[in-house]
Amino acid sequence: MFEAIQKQPADKILALMQAFREDPRADKIDLGVGVYKNAEGMTPIMRAIKSAEKQLWEAETTKSYTGLAGDPGFSDAMISLVLGDAVPRANVAAAATPGGTGAVRQAFDMAKMANPDVRVFVSNPTWPNHLSILKHMKIETVTYRYFDDETRGVDFDGMMADLAQAGKGDLVLLHGCCHNPTGANLNLTQWQEVIDLLLKTGATAMIDIAYQGFGDGLDEDAAATRMVAAALPETLIAASCSKNFGIYRERTGLLMAVAGDPGAQALNQGTLSYLNRQNFSFPPDHGARLVTMVLTDPALRADWAAELEEVRLSMLGLREQLAGELQRLSGSDRFGFLAQHRGMFSRLGTTPELVETLRAEFGIYMVGDSRMNIAGLNKTTVPILAEAIVKAGV
To answer: How far apart are CA 9 and CA 117, in angstroms?
Structure first.
């Protein structure tokens, strides 16, 4: 049997991480791996999470299973965080998943159950694992224009023209905020136009929201997702707790199925529980319980929100510093988009050849499509990166 298995392509980001580790240069800079790092290059445990873990250690009395959909308290807390009061709670089915990636996979599974011939429209570019999962599941993928390499902004006209080809039974995958890998986002006026188009075509929206709180603020980053969920008859939402709670290895996520008709909630809830049972049975609980504790305890929530705001402002400061340094060195404002992008990532919009030049000559590691992790910088390395970008002719 095993001799028939074909070798799978290596994950490019994991390969980049390995190359960085093996590089002996002391002044190398890692902008490839997609995790938040502080000024010391560490991915810290957030204060509120640490406090919650101490409380949980004292209070927890069992490691028995939770329900198939996870602890209902986690669902309630996350639905409130993401959706606020945009839709009635009775309209939302939800299930805990192993990370945001698990939620994405379950959403695709649910869409395929509803329509075996579903097409999933994805932005060009998108998070590579979206495409990898869809290919593995043998789901047809249709790309829509999104990032303009010239302006380093959104090609909104191209996006709308491509999304007009979606129809009833299709799934349109959208990034709720802090678009990965580009950092370029729609404004709320553009979001409303997307909503109007989806209402016209009958396609179903799926939102992947993995960076709430990293862009413009917790409520601001959720505004588009809330607009979509409130306006459309049905929406799938995959939410991740990895970044904004700093619990990457705990694999904590939630899939929400929002229906305009509360009568559909029971069917959707049963489907999400069924999918969990087929794929991994019961979801992990440790990270979900910590998130629930943080979101439902006023003191913990206030401390978490304050630290998250520090993280957000730190990344904005690095963006502004980098854009300013590049303007000073190049004498051009063509890098101003870096200050306008939001979240952990920005895409420089340059060639793989110049990305390789940055790695080989300057020890700057970023993904081949020129996505760089802003959180991999600090105030000291920003001038080094800016000088390398200008010298390489990016």
So the answer is: 26
DSSP of 266-331: HHHHHHHHHHHHHHTSSPP-HHHHHHHHHHHSHHHHHHHHHHHHHHHHHHHHHHHHHHHHHHHHHS
The catalytic residue among 127, 162, 238, 369 is: 127
Residues 247 and 306 in one domain: no
Nearest CA-CA partner of 210 in 181, 231, 188, 235: 181
Check if 304 is active-site.
no
Whether 3 has a pLDDT exceeding 80, the answer reads yes
Place of tokens 């599941």: 137
Is 196 a residue of the active site?
Answer: no
Q: Which amino acid is at 230?
A: A
Q: Is residue 4 part of a domain?
A: no
110 pLDDT band, cuts 50/70/90, is very high
Active site residue 191: no
Which phi and psi angles does 182 have, rounded to 5°?
Answer: -95, -30
Catalytic residue among 208, 285, 303, 369: 208
Whether residue 208 sits in one domain with residue 102: yes
Which of 229, 262, 296 is the C-terminal boundary of a domain?
296
- Residues in a beta bridge with 238: 208, 255
pTM above 0.85, yes or no: yes
| pLDDT-derived band at 263, boundaries 50, 70, 90 | confident
Domain of 369, CATH number, reads: 3.90.1150.10
With respect to residue 5, please indicate whether it lies within any of the assigned structural domains: no
> Is residue 227 located within the same domain as residue 339?
no
Closest among 131, 90, 86, 120 to 206, alpha carbons compared: 120
Q: Is residue 135 part of a domain?
A: yes
Last residue of a domain, one of 253, 277, 296: 296
The pair of structure tokens assigned to 94 is 């939800």
Kindly name the residue from 86, 243, 257, 369 that is annotated as catalytic: 243
- CA-nearest of 135, 86, 68, 96 to 235 is 86
Q: Which of 69, 210, 224, 238 is catalytic?
A: 210
The answer to whether 210 is a known catalytic residue is yes
Residues 159 and 201 occupy one common structural domain: yes
- Distances in Å between the alpha carbon of 249 and those of 145, 246, 287, 377? 33, 9, 9, 22
Is 55 contained in some domain? no
